[in-house]
Amino acid sequence: MADLTQNPGRNWKWADVLKTPWAVIVALLLAVAVLDPGNLGTVIVFAAKALAHTGQYILFAVLLLAYLKATGAEVMVARAFEGREVRMILLAALFGGLAPFCSCEVIPFIAGLLALGAPLSAVMAFWLSSPLIDPPTLLITAGALGWDFAIGKAVFAVALGLFGGFVVKGLIGRGAFADPLKPRKSTGCCSCSGPKLDGKPHWRFWQETDRRARFREEFISNGLFLLKWLALAYVLEALLVDYVPADLIARAVGGEGVLPIVIAALVGMPAYLNSYVAPPLLAGLIDQGMTAGAAMAFMIAGAVSSIPAMAAVWSLVKPRVFAAYLGLGIGGAIIAGVLFQLV
């Protein structure tokens, strides 16, 4: 969020304030009030009911995420990168579903692992699976799209990690991807940092002042983050349902066949929609005619990467590794969409 504490009363950065989700929500509701005042109440009630329904999941997700951060549980992930390569791939894909990293946050972690000499196959398995699912994302997805969709995404997250890891292992066996890292000083993506790769979790975090402070900080910051983005997502969903013709959505990403799924995956990857915002929007699109397979492809491709994450990855690894990362992400999203559609 914009920092309004600097130079109070004098030099507020209005440009930053106007870019916040709250400002967008107000602008959208004002537009409805001016252009279609009779529908304003319907839009607000729709968004409020949807947000209230998801509220129980938001609270549990925020508590869980704050607990994981306060205890330092993410350091357990580093243990997956020890031992034989096949074991590393399996554990990296599984642990990816527990690590609370987005497509940006995972990059410093990946850089640290590669710098320490972890095999690219295992790193790729974690790289692809980690942004797709974590316990909070699972709950948010279930609240918006149902448990079938949430569990399906979790299964595909691990499967995509395994798929990417073993594909890269096979390519490395043929001489590909030697020395994957570029010479670099830093990775600029988000104001995120990776976890330390040593130490152990402190499950009773409340016994330490610093960890209690970390819990409070994470609870407040993640709570506000989820609240503002989900509020915006549900307002957008209400507008989609009310104003976007169903046949338009159906023509683009509806109907039978693979083409709608491919389109959804290609559109989803550059779109900067995190895994907390995407489910409500997809619920609205599904109501308008988007197929379940296209929705799954969009969600997976969008979680694997985004334009900010792509920029950071490009600065981190050599072009062949970058191409493999994007190719595996899009290809895996399409395959997941097709399989989910069939099921």
From TrEMBL:
Kindly list the places in or outside the cell where this protein is found, as annotated in its UniProt entry: Cell membrane
Protein name listed in UniProt? Permease
Instruction: Tell me the superkingdom of the source.
Output: Bacteria
Q: Which PANTHER family match?
A: UPF0718 PROTEIN YCGR (PTHR34184)
Organism listed in the record? Thalassovita mangrovi
Q: What protein family is recorded?
A: Belongs to the UPF0718 family.
What is the predominant subcellular site recorded for this chain?
membrane
* Residues forming coiled coils: none
Q: Which GO terms describe its cellular component?
A: plasma membrane
Q: Does the keyword Kinase apply?
A: no
Where are the membrane-spanning stretches?
A: 20-46, 58-80, 86-102, 149-172, 219-236, 248-273, 294-316, 322-342
Topology versus the membrane, per the UniProt entry? Answer: Multi-pass membrane protein
On whether Iron-sulfur is a keyword of this UniProt record, the answer is no
Going by the UniProt record, its keywords in alphabetical order are: Cell membrane, Membrane, Transmembrane, Transmembrane helix
